[in-house]
Amino acid sequence: MTNSLRPHGQQSAPLPPARPPAPGVPGPRPSETPRTPQAGTAAGPDARPAKQRDAFFDNAKYLAIVFVAMGHAWEPLTDHSRAAEALYMVVYTFHMPAFILISGYFSRSFDMRPDRLRRLVTGIAVPYVLFEVAYSLFKKWADDDPGHPISLLDPWYLTWFLVALFVWRLTVPLWKVVRWPVPLALAVAVLASVSPDIGDDLDLQRVLQFLPFFVVGLFMKPEHFQLMRRREVRVLSVPVLALTLAFAYWAGPRMNSAWFYHRDSAQELGAPWWAGVVMTLAMFGCSMVLTSCFFAWVPRRKMWFTVLGAGTLYGYLLHGFLAKGSRFWGWYDDYAWLNHPVGEVLVSVFAAAFITALCTPFVQRVFRFAMEPKMEWAFRRDATEVARERAKARA
Predict the structure, then answer these.
(1) Cβ(91)–Cβ(70) below 8 Å
(2) What is the pTM of this model?
């Protein structure tokens, strides 16, 4: 039924929690020394006490990662179920922008300070290398494809987001000095969408086309999230979502869903160049509206799953092995009942339960060596940083 291009690697992803927020921005874990973006604190030279994590953002990250897992589980169903295709399109409109927006919001304080650069390397670059190699080896074995190359320049499947986040974080100081950052980021995204010569190296199309959401998050303030959480927004989001689902149900067989991946230029999707301009701007607007609707329904208080919001990077990178393995091993073809309504519901429930398990503290402890390596042996520390750490320890 679907009219989509699905090359390898065009999945969405959750974001690894970002750098410590600026003063007044909620989020960091109290009194915990950071090792990676998932456990950042706001301590500076004066070693002020860190603020509590905001349950709202942890809830948002957990719920978004659940949508990511269900979206991956729905993808093979879209050829047989128009309803699954409509849900797939709606989810892909907002879950990636929501993650990127939160990532930008918590990158507000990023600068070129040595300790933050080290966390950028250990929390993003190192996991990228390890999982890019692991996924490539997995494809060689599970897909019976011994010729599949291992290339750090061509992110495969989920790892593209780590490349994008690495690049976006490095550009934070630039966006802080330009006069109109969001229009400029949109212009960059539009130009990328009409530039087929960019190629596949480091998935730069995605890096550039998703950039506006990161920049929007970078300049958001706590009151903007408070506005999206107002009761009026929550009430209005219901008819908006209903109309979006109805439109997606109609558009599913008529629209190329590869537009949602932001992986290719308009020309590579068989469309005229001007379609890239129109679709980039239109999808940016639709994504921002649905992202606001999503945030409107995220619980503000601490829930049973709030603690799992700190483990979304783990769930994101680890669930991909099962998501891809189910395709390699032909489970959706061997078990035809999965393509019926009851099967679709069970697949959705299993995907949510599986990703929930992968975000638990136990899994974080087991795989911390790959996601949050200390690597103290690899870096030098200057006197200023040593003094800062001693001040933090005394506090």
Answers:
(1) yes
(2) 0.82
Q: DSSP letter string over 93-116?
A: HHHHHHHHHHHHHTTTT--S-HHH
| Position 134, amino acid | A
Q: What digits encode the pLDDT tens for the residues 135-161?
A: 999 999 998 888 888 888 889 889 999
Q: Which residue has the tokens 């011994």?
A: 146
pLDDT tens digits along 31-48: 333 343 443 333 333 334
Residue 80: DSSP 8-state = T
Residue 341 CA to residue 352 CA, distance in Å, equals 17
Question: Using alpha carbons only, how large is the chain's radius of gyration in Å?
Answer: 21
Q: How far apart are CA 71 and CA 329, in angstroms?
A: 19
Which residue reads 């208080």 in tokens? 301
Residue 303 Cα to chain centre, angstroms:
22
Question: Taking a C-beta distance cutoff of 8 angstroms, is the pair 212, 186 a contact?
Answer: yes
CB 311 within 8 A of CB 364: yes
Is residue 126 helix, strand or coil? helix
Residue 43 burial by CB count (10 A; 0-12/13-18/19+): exposed, middle or buried? Answer: buried
Of all helices (H) and strands (E), which one includes residue 249? helix 231-251
Burial class of residue 333 in the structure, from the number of CB atoms within 10 Å of its CB (0-12 exposed, 13-18 middle, 19+ buried) = exposed
Which residue, chain included where needed, has tokens 């966390």?
A: 119
Quote the CA–CA distance of 263 and 198 in Å, as a whole number. 11
Whether residue 275 contacts residue 105, with contact meaning beta carbons closer than 8 Å, is answered with no
Q: Is the pLDDT of residue 63 over 70?
A: yes
Q: Give whole-number Cα distances, 200 to 69, 84, 205, in Å.
A: 25, 29, 7
Mean per-residue pLDDT for 216-238?
92
CA 13 to the chain's CA centroid: 4
Least confident window among 8-17, 212-221, 282-291, 329-338: 8-17
pLDDT digits (tens, 9 = 90+) for 354-377: 999 999 999 999 999 999 888 888
What pLDDT digit, counting tens, does each position of 348-358 carry?
A: 999 999 999 99
Go through the chain and tell me how many residues it has: 395
- More confidently predicted of 7 and 115: 115
What does 178-241 look like in DSSP terms, one character per residue? SS-HHHHHHHHHHHHHT-GGG-SGGGHHHHHHSHHHHHHHHT--HHHHHHHTSHHHHHHHHHHH
